[in-house]
Amino acid sequence: MIDKKNTLILVALEQELPKSYLPGWKIIYTGVGKVNASFAISRSYFDYKPKYVVNYGTAGSLNKNISGLIEVSKFYQRDMDVRGLGFKLGQTPFENDFFVQLNKNGYSCGTGDSFVMSSPDLVTDIVDMEAYSYAKFCKINKLNFICFKFISDNADNDAVRDWSKAFKKGAKEFSLFFQKEYEGIKI
């Protein structure tokens, strides 16, 4: 059962989810990007020994039919590009799996170390800068992983302006949803 003792909530930036929105929950601010996300989840795993890891954050949508708070279940590394050596776009060399799939329905996310303002080569439903790192770490360490993203922009020329306006609305929507759906509920 997911509870405050055995769960970490990973968020890149404090403005995406202030701790006051989910009092008593262990919220870790990881910083932006895959490297910061990898360091933070590793450190947090050894410090807190969670059974559940929840990722919440903002994301750009490449699918114009998606808005609001969504659940993500498939994760790609959109900026891993070693096609010149014969690997698929998104595939880490010499690894068979080039995405992480959770055992549930949800949207696909392309994670990369760039802020997307036009369609990337590897097209997914949404784009972010951390989720793939969390998903892969949880898969390797057999942790339960849940990921929610608030669509802040459409990954276009207006993305910067739209993204900076979405924090508060997304934080409120996620915290209300999380309290209703997950506090003390078996998953």
Give a concise summary.
By secondary structure, this protein is α/β, with parallel strands linked by helices. The protein contains three helices and eight strands, in the order ββαβββββαβα.
Assign the structural class, choosing from mainly alpha, mainly beta, alpha/beta, alpha+beta, or little secondary structure: alpha/beta
N- to C-terminal distance:
6 Å
CATH superfamily: Nucleoside phosphorylase domain
**Morphology call:** globular
Low-confidence runs (pLDDT<50, min 5 residues)?
none
Count of discrete structural domains: 1
Q: The CATH topology, please?
A: Rossmann fold
Q: What's the order of the H and E elements?
A: EEHEEEEEHEH
Describe this entry's structure for a reader.
- By secondary structure, the chain is an alpha/beta fold.
- It has a single domain (7-182), classed as Nucleoside phosphorylase domain (Rossmann fold, 3-Layer(aba) Sandwich), CATH 3.40.50.1580.
- It is 26% helix and 26% strand.
- The chain is built from three helices and eight strands, in the order ββαβββββαβα.
- The protein has helices at residues 34-48, 131-140, 159-182; strands at 7-11, 26-29, 52-61, 69-77, 99-101, 107-111, 126-128, 144-153.
- It has a five-stranded mixed barrel.
- α1 (34-48) packs across α2 (131-140).
- The mean pLDDT is 91.
